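Intended use. Records like the one below are meant for learning the mapping from a protein sequence to its folded structure. Do not use them to infer anything beyond what is encoded.
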Amino acid sequence: MQTIVSQRLNEGAGAVFYPLSEIGAALNEGQRLFVFLTLCIERTADWTIAPGATFTHMRTPFPDWIAPLRLTAANGSKIRPARLSDLWALDSQWPTASGPAKRYVAMGSDLVALYPTPDEDTTIPAQYAALPQALVNAGDVPEIAAQNHPVLVSYAIYRCRMVEGAQEFEKTLELFDEFIAAATQYGAYVRARNQGANYDTLPPEISSMDWSSLVPVERAARR
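Structure written out for the chain above:
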């Protein structure tokens, strides 16, 4: 994939202007953005909770954490998502309440609060949307669906051409359009799948996003 990007950037065998390390970084950036927009990578892992651990930064046990999809209690029941206002309305002492967890609140990028807080060592399965594994070697295969691999090449070319600006960069905006169109389509698929599975987090509505901060204003107006 790095070779394909290099060839389409009109680089020779030496890859002078766009070194392979820069191309690799652009490919990884594209894959991470695609995954953030679609939440297309799902993992399930055991989450071990220490007694009294009301709040947890989930990237500590799960470094690739993006968002919760489903948390399941030890008895097999679903731990339901809630808001902080819900917990305060339910129990004014909720941060100190103890017992099997029944609700959770996701805050910020990775902070999760449990209510009640387990009063003993507890291990529960956590299903979550995850970051992709980084592409390190030239032969590494992206973790996203194979049908979307070509748009990673499109994004990498777009990203590398940014440094040139002006007309050279303008020529690559159609490649960015391809990338966003693919993410929009696949995000709609993942949204329907997550709704069907009764997951707690859905991909963002990409079609309603404002891309003017990423592309020229006049270009954004034509999207």
